[in-house]
Give the backbone structure.
Amino acid sequence: MNTSETPFIWRDLSSFNPATTRRFYTAVLGWSFEEADGYAYASAAGGQVAGLYEMPDKFRKIGMPSFWMSYIAVTDIAAVVETARAHGGRVEIDRSPFGGGHFALIRDPSGAGFTIYNGPPLAGDVQGHGAPCGHDLYVADAALVAGFYKALFGWRFIETGGAFDIFSGDKRIARCYQVPDAERGKEQYWAVNFAVADLDTARAVISEHGGSIIAMTETVDGPTLVAADPDGGTFFLRQAGAKSARGPVKWYALGGLTLIFAGVLLNLPWLWGVFLGVWTIQAVRDGKTYLFEDVSRAETPTLYWIIVAVFAALTVLSFIPGES
């Protein structure tokens, strides 16, 4: 995923000890740094990839840990800030100047923080070792935040095997992982992923330079190394060029296809009734259905119940014998 395909246009690290963390990321990700006005721009393979700056006093006073922050491009910061407040978000920093443009820092209803930005491009289109390779949301309850991001950016959360794909229009721009506190820790956050030439080598270099290994996990996008720098800033590493892990077998979908084929080939109308009945039950259970587009009970209750009633009526009719 590169910068031309995603609204995630930048990421930076707030560090207690910038000199130490700069050396660390140079060793692990091969970054070089160029500083301007106390803000260090990291580059890999000839293009800027991230920023690093010293933890501000206002963050130190409230006990903020060292953290990576994801930046999302917007056209109207004031409008997004207003929408965030109206939908349960918290604005930590209102519209402020940065990088020739402006930014604001927002927390979603779960507490996961992100920055919105409007201004000149910050990052280059970089691939390979040391390049960013995605931003993922880790929360306890995806349903708690899905409506928030839809209101802000029009994003859709679509459940897949092991995660929720986050779509902007017809493009998947991120994933959301629903992880219990016992596994995720107390924080809910946007994770920043970087590519490395070899995960095993990266693991060794991280340990040698004062970092720590938190976990090696299997995500939808393949093996992922979760690590922390010497200041405690958590980041995620993936193998450069690695393909997404093969998804799980969708047994329910395969069963549905089998039912359709059997209904057509054997001319058994009651099979269509079973199919429609299951569809009706799922729609009532989930509070949403699909008829050429998503239809939610919460958003459009009248249309939702009409569709469910039609499904239910067709289910009953399918079991009524026709004239011989």
Notes: The radius of gyration is 24 Å. The chain has two domains: 8-239, 251-318. The longest strand covers residues 90-98.
